Amino acid sequence: MAPQRREKLNGIWISDISIRQPVFITMVMLAFITFGILSFRSTPVNLLPEIDVPIISVSVTYPGAGPESVVDQVVKPIENAVNTLAGLKHITAQANEGSALIILEFEAGNDAKQLEEDVRQRVNSILPQLPRDVRQPVYQRFDPNQSPVMQIAVADTSGRSPLELRTLIMKRSFHLFSALLALVR
């Protein structure tokens, strides 16, 4: 019996190899799938890159004071204390009844931790000049990596109590989370 002669295929080279060597192509595809799964599991998910945003906020509580008093007795002295910091780009202040929020935006490239410490020192140096009822300021750095990925609001029009609605949401979200976790595994 004469050996079978293979026809010369004149298609695209990858399809020619696929027709002639199906086991080889199957192994190559399994290798790609395996490497894809391994990469997917080992690659970290980071929605935002690691950035150091030089924005510092100072929250001050002054119980019982009106907005005008807060501005005159709290916000202006704090602004005067911090406005000479190096690299300060913009100051935004908001005074409400009983509280003040001062947001300090610095030039990019500055170390946010060091700036927070500088702001803390400046504000703490003028605390004795502020009214006695002013509480200790709260300092925060803006970190985009700590902001939530998603926020959900739920409303009910069927007349359920808030406790019933919360229980229903917790049960449903637990089932949804369990199903998603099973898919990921």
What's the SSE blueprint?
Elements: H1 13-20, H2 22-42, E1 55-61, H3 67-82, E2 88-96, E3 99-106, H4 112-126, E4 138-141, H5 162-184
Antiparallel strand pairs: 1-3, 1-4, 2-3
Helix pairs in contact: 1-2, 3-4
Which CATH class of the largest domain? Answer: Alpha Beta
What percent of the residues sit in helical stretches (DSSP H or I)?
40-55%
Spans of at least 5 consecutive residues whose pLDDT stays below 50 are none
Assign the CATH topology of the largest domain: Alpha-Beta Plaits
Number of strands: 4
Assigned CATH superfamily of the largest domain: Multidrug efflux transporter AcrB pore domain
**Shape category:** elongated
Please give the CATH architecture of the largest domain. 2-Layer Sandwich
Widest sheet: strand ordering: 2-3-1-4
Q: Sheet with the most strands?
A: 4 strands, antiparallel
Structural write-up:
The structure is a single chain. With 185 residues, this protein is α+β, with helices and mostly antiparallel strands. The protein has 3 domains: 14-41; 55-146, Multidrug efflux transporter AcrB pore domain (Alpha-Beta Plaits); 149-185. It has 5 helices and 4 strands; from the N terminus they run H-H-E-H-E-E-H-E-H. The protein has a 4-stranded antiparallel beta sheet with strand order 2-3-1-4, with helices on one face. Helix 1 (13-20) packs across helix 2 (22-42) and helix 3 crosses helix 4 (112-126). The longest helix is centred in the C-terminal third of the chain and has 23 residues, at 162-184.
